[in-house]
Structure formats: C-alpha cells, structure tokens
C-alpha cells in the first residue's frame, strides 16, 4: 500500500478482541498508514481479549463502551475527541454477537429475547453510533464509516440463523444513514462483506471449518484474509474512495459472483 494513506486522519476502531480479529489488524494497518485513533470495546469483551496490548503497539488508549448504550457512545466520543484533539475522519463498526448461535438454538427455535439482543448488538448499535455522531456533529466532512457485514445478509446460510437477519438490518442502516450523512456532511457509509475468516467470532459458528473450505474452493482468488480485509478498510477510510457510499462491498475473492467451480464439480463427480 502507499505510505501515509491516512496521514492526519483520526477516528475510532471498535471490536478488536485479539490478534486474529479484523478490527485488530485494521488498527495495525491504520497506525502504519499514519492515522491516530482510539480503540473501544464492551467491558466484557475487554476482559476476554488483549486489547490493551494492541493499544500499546498503536500508541493509543482504550475507552470501554457498550455500543448498545447511547450514553456510553456519547461518553466514548467526548473522551476520544479530547484525546485526539479533533473530530473524527473514520469509524469502524466491527461488532456482532448472537446468543442463539452461542447456545445452539436453530432458526426455527429462536429465543426471541436473545434475538433482540443479537439485533441490538450487531445492527442497531451501528445506527446508534451514527445517530450520536450526527447529533454531536463529531464527524469531519468527507469522513468514512464502515461496518462489517456478511453475505448471509443477502443469501441463505442456515448455520448463520438470526445473525443473517442482523446483518441484513446492518446493511439497510448503512444505506439509510449513508443517504442522510452524505446529504448533510458528505460523510460516506458502507458495509464490507468479508470471506469466511478464521477469527474468534467466526470460528465459533458450527460447521465453520467445512464452510471455510467450501468457500476457498468456490472463490477464484481464494478466501480473503483478515489482513487483506484490514487493508481494504484502510482504503475505504482514505480519500481515494471519497465517492463510494451506501454500498455493501464484497471482499471475498469472487465468491459472491461464482455459481460453481471446477474443484467442487470434481468432488461431486467423485462422490457418485
């Protein structure tokens, strides 16, 4: 990548849990490209991860915040602005969790209280972050806001259960607020649908390894790595993508456009 792609830019990166997470790798790439930012995660997630180690490596601070709480987001933005000394040029929403998936509930047997929690954490928190940002007038003109989605928002993946609904809502919110933020402040809002990626969150889904191998066989370029996704996110934060907004962008090695591959056809023939 070109050097100093984000020189002078400031922002917030959410959801860095451990060195396998996309948000973690995005923080390292953003630092490498000259950005200044603060890290944030929910208090419970901070106890599970090693985000303080990342903060030291990136020469920054961690501000705990529950992204489902408007009050926490307001506090996060105020403290981050004070630390950074300016408004924000970028925000990364890398937040998602489904109690139904964690506890093995199938899509036809959802616990609805848990489902509402999934939607709040994984999608409505995106709206809350942008609503608070707009009301506080905390985003600079031509800023960039990115949320991490998944192709299950568009197509059926039975193992993804209520998270598929949450991601569909996330993408709708990106379009709705992308229009609003674009008209009012020239801020762009996009989501990125990444390949299945070996992260703590992704690998916790049942059947993940089999699907990872399937996607690898289907994608002409193979699965995109978390590090490659981080580079893509940094590009979306940069001025090189100023006119891209309200999009769901596939970063998946061509998986989303491929019907079938020779490798999969050969395996099907071998099974006969």
Could you explain how this protein is built, in words?
- This is Enoyl-[acyl-carrier-protein] reductase [NADH].
- There is one protein chain.
- With 272 residues, the chain is an alpha/beta fold.
- The chain has one domain (10-271): NAD(P)-binding Rossmann-like Domain (Rossmann fold, 3-Layer(aba) Sandwich), CATH 3.40.50.720.
- The protein is 46% helix and 14% strand.
- The protein has helices at residues 22-32, 43-48, 51-57, 70-84, 99-102, 112-136, 161-185, 208-218, 226-237, 262-271, and strands at 10-14, 36-40, 88-93, 139-149, 188-194, 248-251.
- The chain has a 6-stranded parallel beta sheet, with helices on both faces.
- Strand 4, helix 7 and strand 5 (188-194) form a beta-alpha-beta unit.
- The chain is globular and about 60 Å long.
- The relative contact order is 0.14.
- The mean pLDDT is 93.
Salient structural properties:
globular, six-stranded parallel beta sheet, Rossmann fold, 272 residues, 6 strands, 10 helices, alpha/beta
